[in-house]
Each structure stands twice: as structure tokens, then as C-alpha cells.
TrEMBL record:
Residues 22-61 form the Leucine-rich repeat-containing N-terminal plant-type domain. The lineage of its organism: Eukaryota, Viridiplantae, Streptophyta, Embryophyta, Tracheophyta. It comes from Kingdonia uniflora. It comes from the Eukaryota. This is Leucine-rich repeat-containing N-terminal plant-type domain-containing protein. Pfam families: LRR_14, LRRNT_2. Residues 1-21 form the signal peptide. Residues 69-168 form the Disease resistance R13L4/SHOC-2-like LRR domain.
Amino acid sequence: MAAIWTVLLLLLGTLSTPTTANLEGDALFAFRRGLKDPQHVLQSWDPTLVNPCTWFHVTCDKDNRVTRLDLGNAKLSGKLVSELGKLKHLQYLELYRNKLVGVIPKELGGLKSLLSLDLYHNNLTGSIPSSLSKLTNIRFLRLNSNRLTGRIPRQLTKLPNLKNLDVSNNDLCGTIPTSGSFYKFTEKSFENNSRLQGPELMGSVSYDIGFCN
Ligand SMILES: *[C@@H]1O[C@H](CO)[C@@H](O)[C@H](O)[C@H]1NC(C)=O
Ligand SMILES: *[C@@H]1O[C@H](CO)[C@@H](O)[C@H](O)[C@H]1NC(C)=O
């Protein structure tokens, strides 16, 4: 029975938009290539299949477009890749509690459908890309407990649907924006960034003043 379903799914995949499906599979496989996966959670990721929808930890919609990547707590190490930005229908990018290093690629700003970006508890470095301000649907943005540096991009305050922001436990600097959707976040979202000043409206600190590198 399962085999019949697999064959059906494969046929459907061939009939409907195979180029898109391959692009998404290629993007995910580009990510996999750079990862160390000691628990073999990515073993089912076979790049020769017509689409990645039967791979474990990947969820697709009825048109075989990737909507979720669920790889939290998977003991993965390696880097995020710019190709992930090609997953235009991705709603959940769940990569928390791994050992990811390197930067957050600015291309992740291309994930137009994203509702949740969970990269917390990794070892990511570099700054928070201002391109994340293009994620107009995003509700959950959790980048806490990494080694991120630089200022909090002020453009992020324009995200209309942001409900939960956590950038605590990093090495951010500058001031804490308080305008736009940021008015609702408490200091808890920003704690343990020893060089972060602010919040802007509470004191005499104005944005972008103060040493920050
Ligand atoms: C982050 O890197 C440090 C230093 O290399 C290491 O000690 C620590 O275990 C790493 N943390 C994670 C969550 O990978
Ligand atoms: C502060 O954040 C750093 C970086 O993530 C972390 O290593 C450290 O344990 C945190 N300190 C506290 C008191 O939570």
C-alpha cells in the first residue's frame, strides 16, 4: 500500500511543476551536502527522487511544494546555505538546537511565505541580515543563543505580523528599537547582549549612537 502511494506521489510530482519541485529538492540537497549528520536524520534525502516530499523532516503542500523543514534538535553541524532562500512556499524553518555555524544568509529574506524562523541555540555568527525585513508574514523570529554581532536592523520593526521575537544571548550592540511591531517586546527578548543599549524611548539613548562594531 505504501509503495502504491509512493508511486502515485511520484507520478503526481512528474505531472505537476517538476521544475519547481527539482529546484526545491536541489536547494535542500545543497544544504545537506554541507552538513555533518551523526544521527543519520537525513538518510532519506535522496536527490534522485522527483521531489523532496517523501524525505523525512520535509513537509509539502498538495502541489508538492516544501512548506516545512523540521530539523530541530537533530545534532546537525555545518552551515546554512543561500540556496535555502529558494523555498518560496516554506512556512516553517525549524533548525533550533543544532551546532550550526557561520552566518545567516541574506537570501533567507526571499522566503516570502515564512511564518516561523527558529535558529535558536546554534553557533551562528555575523549580523542579523536586514533582508529579514522582507519576511512580511513572519510571526516567530527566534535567533537567541547564538553568537550574533552587530546592530538589530531597524527595518525589522516594520514586520507587521511579528508576535514573538527573541535575540537574547548573543553579542549584539547598538540600541533596542522600540517602534512598529517592537513596541510589544519586553527586555527579555534582548537580554544577555552585553553591548546592547536601550531601549530607545526609555532613556536619552537615541538610535545608532554608541560604539558598535
Ligand atoms: C559553540 O562553539 C563553542 C566553541 O567552539 C563550543 O564550545 C560550543 O559547544 C558550541 N555550541 C553549540 C551549541 O554548538
Ligand atoms: C549569554 O549568552 C552567551 C552567548 O549565547 C552564552 O554563552 C551565555 O551562557 C549567556 N549567559 C547567560 C547568563 O545566560
